[in-house]
Amino acid sequence: MKKLLALIVAALMLFSAVAALAEDFEVSQDYSSIPMEKTGDYDASGDPAAELIFTSVSVTGDSHTTAMSAFADAVKEFSGGTVDCKTYADGTLFSSEVEWDAISSGQADLAYISFPTLSTQDGLEWCAMVNSGYFWSSYEHMTTTLNGSEIGDKIFAEIEEKTNVVPLGAYYLGSRVVNTRAKAINSYDDMAGLLLRMPGSEAWQNLGAALGANPTPLSFSELYTALSTGAVDAQDNPLPSDISAKFYEVAPYIAITNHVVDSIIPCINKDKWNSLTDAQKAAVKDAIAYAAKVNDTLRIASEDAAIAYLEGKGCTVTYPDLEDFRAHVQQYYADHPEQTETWNMELYEEIQALAK
């Protein structure tokens, strides 16, 4: 709880610095108020020089891109200058389609990897459950479980065992909400009958059904037109995506359902990791933890600013009972065991117990 309160305070400080809500919705990326703190008494200043290549498809101005720069600054400081990190954002080095192969093979050293990507690897199919509806009850549930708990350590150890990467932590990606064309969503029952656009994969279609709607597969590029013509009634995305794509213009009712609290994992190639000294590894871990604070603080500030922006545009923002949503969604999965056959149900129950 102390971690959450600290992030909220920092987010409010950053939010107060946000300029008047402009048409292009820009949120300050200044993280100078977040202290750079080294843990332990390690000293890497006399170690051999090491270079890290950090690749990402996150765009300039996004918190994940800002966190890359924060990591590069911190790891150089903590390692006494022996670890130098070069950052490549905007997909300039590797596209999303080849990013996993790049870090696995060592063409890149660091990258953000998602649980759905990990679920494509042999022995990690269970990772798909992490993006199911209400797997995480909140941001705090997600970050405290993945960052430093015994369960989080066990998850990361299994990923390391089954792949050629070492997970270093979990950063907040955002929470998905629902917005609709013609009516406000105040309860789970209000979802009934809605044509809800969802990505075309089976897991996403299952999530749409679990939310009580009629899931409709449709490409992102076609979504604005489909909402404007009534071909679909609703869509789900994190708030900043809703704003950047201007979906709120044709679907002005926003329901804060937070049905997927998403994360992204900064990973390092295992061979590169093993080439570092113990002190340099400690510096990398401290720098990753610092960059996590930067990312998460900026991400929370962005979501808070997004709500104010949408209300300023005349949108109706509602806050339905999340416990009611969660109960219905999780019951749906329980009633459809064929959709959960690859899940690690023992781990699932362990993580759900932490939310209670």
Q: What topology does this entry show?
A:
Blueprint lengths: L1 H15 L33 E6 L7 H16 L4 E6 L10 H7 L4 E4 L1 H4 L20 H8 L3 H13 L2 E3 L3 E10 L14 E4 L3 H9 L3 E4 L5 H7 L4 E5 H6 L8 E3 L5 E9 H6 L2 H35 L3 E3 L3 H14 L9 H9 L3
Parallel strand pairs: 1-2, 1-3, 6-7, 6-8, 9-11
Antiparallel strand pairs: 3-10, 4-10, 5-8, 5-9, 5-10
Helix pairs in contact: 1-11, 2-11
What key attributes describe this structure?
D-Maltodextrin-Binding Protein, domain 2, eleven-stranded mixed beta sheet, 2 domains, alpha/beta, 13 helices, 356 residues, globular, disordered N terminus
- Give the overall silhouette: globular
Q: Say what the CATH topology of the largest domain is.
A: D-Maltodextrin-Binding Protein, domain 2
Q: Could you name the CATH class of the largest domain? A: Alpha Beta
| CATH architecture annotation name of the largest domain | 3-Layer(aba) Sandwich
User: What is the succession of H and E elements?
Assistant: HEHEHEHHHEEEHEHEHEEHHEHH
Report the sheet with the most strands, covering strand number, pairing sense and barrel closure: 11 strands, mixed
The number of E-state strands comes to 11
* Mean pLDDT value: 91
What share of the residues lie within helices? 40-55%
* Beta-strand residue percentage: 15-25%
